[in-house]
Specification:
With 340 residues, the chain is α/β, with parallel strands linked by helices. The chain has nine helices and ten strands. α1 runs parallel beside α2. It is globular.
């Protein structure tokens, strides 16, 4: 099967990015993303606006992905799409488009779990990036998810730890909002943290048993701290913004690394991969790298463009499923709360 020349189109529409990608035998030929800037005004994603924008973007984005890959739709062997988890309205746009296109071209349809795709993005053929061997631990960190997953093979994954309330990306965004930063706040906090002292202010780490996470208490702690300090000094945020961001980042990274250490110890697995939008964070990448010398880990960080929501990760899962003849029926439906 793998000796064939296989072209797969991947479509991603789980949240506010409309994306399409063409993969050829495991190599990405195009990876096109249309961002929706409108949500910045609201400080978060507005589901109704997101699905409307997907309807406008999906045809041009797919068209561009095919053109950049230098192929026509007739070259395609299958259409892979995000079935879930995500925003229902957004998922429906991608799902119905993929189903119609696959039917029109009379080629297989492949549904993809968005969270599995973040993990399997590590298997895209990309020069200079190693693929983790099985079994490995994957930490998926994004605006909607924080999970530690034990990955035994491509399609055998077990969530061994997850957040019991907010996701790590949400902790960044809400902290940013408290500090008056723009949305999304993660990249801005990361940037400001570079010039700050990570130990300037101390925030309490939530105590959660086992491998699970909690971020809502930390968020509240940051809010009360800022309220208290600005009462004393109204210019507190402006005068200390770098130190505040560095301290918030230091605390969040500490929470993530502590749980990874525990997971590695419990499973005996020392191959650690990260995925999801928050894995673009430079502090997290550095802390993971430090883990190599500190804990004997081998770490895997995906290429920057494969960390945030993108269709290349959908396409690679489509390719891996295609090799196993693992196709979907036309009556497959989107699922907002799809589990790994």
């Amino acid at each position: 099967m793998s000796s064939q020349n296989i072209y797969i189109l991947g479509i991603e529409s789980s949240c506010d990015d409309t994306a399409a990608s063409v993969i050829y035998n495991g190599k990405i030929l195009s990876n096109v993303v249309a961002n929706q800037k409108i949500h910045e005004e609201y400080g978060g994603v507005v589901p109704e606006l997101a699905s409307r924008a997907h309807q406008q973007n999906i045809v041009p984005v797919v068209d561009q992905a095919l053109k950049k890959a230098n192929i026509t739709k007739e070259h395609l062997h299958a259409i892979a799409f995000t079935r879930g988890p995500g925003l229902m309205g957004s998922l429906l746009v991608g799902t119905s488009f993929a189903k119609s296109l696959a039917m029109g071209l009379d080629i297989p349809l492949i549904d993809v779990n968005h969270m599995q795709a973040h993990i399997l993005a590590h298997f895209i053929d990309e020069e200079g990036f190693n693929k983790p061997p099985f079994p490995f631990l994957a930490m998926t960190i994004s605006g909607g998810h924080t999970q530690i997953v034990k990955v035994s093979n491509y399609f055998e994954m077990e969530v061994i730890g997850e957040t019991i309330d907010d996701a790590v990306g949400e902790a960044y965004d809400k902290s940013g909002k408290i500090l008056g930063l723009g949305y999304p706040a993660g990249p801005e906090i990361d940037k400001l943290a570079h010039s700050g002292n990570p130990k300037a202010f101390q925030f309490t780490k939530p105590k959660v048993a086992g491998l699970n996470f909690s971020f809502s208490g930390l968020k509240t702690g940051i809010l009360y701290f800022i309220q208290r300090e600005t009462k004393v000094n109204p210019n507190f945020i402006e005068e200390n913004i770098n130190d505040i961001c560095a301290s918030i980042q230091y605390t969040i990274i500490g929470i993530l690394i502590d749980k990874l250490k525990l997971a590695s110890k419990q499973t005996g697995i020392k191959h650690i991969a990260i995925g999801g939008g928050v894995s673009a964070n430079s502090g997290i990448r550095q802390a993971l790298k430090n883990g190599e010398s500190k804990f004997g880990w081998t770490t895997y960080v995906p290429k920057f463009e494969f960390t945030t929501d993108n269709a290349a990760m959908i396409a690679i899962v489509g390719y891996l499923k295609y090799l196993e003849n693992n196709f979907s029926e036309q009556n497959v439906t989107a699922s907002a709360r799809l589990k790994i």
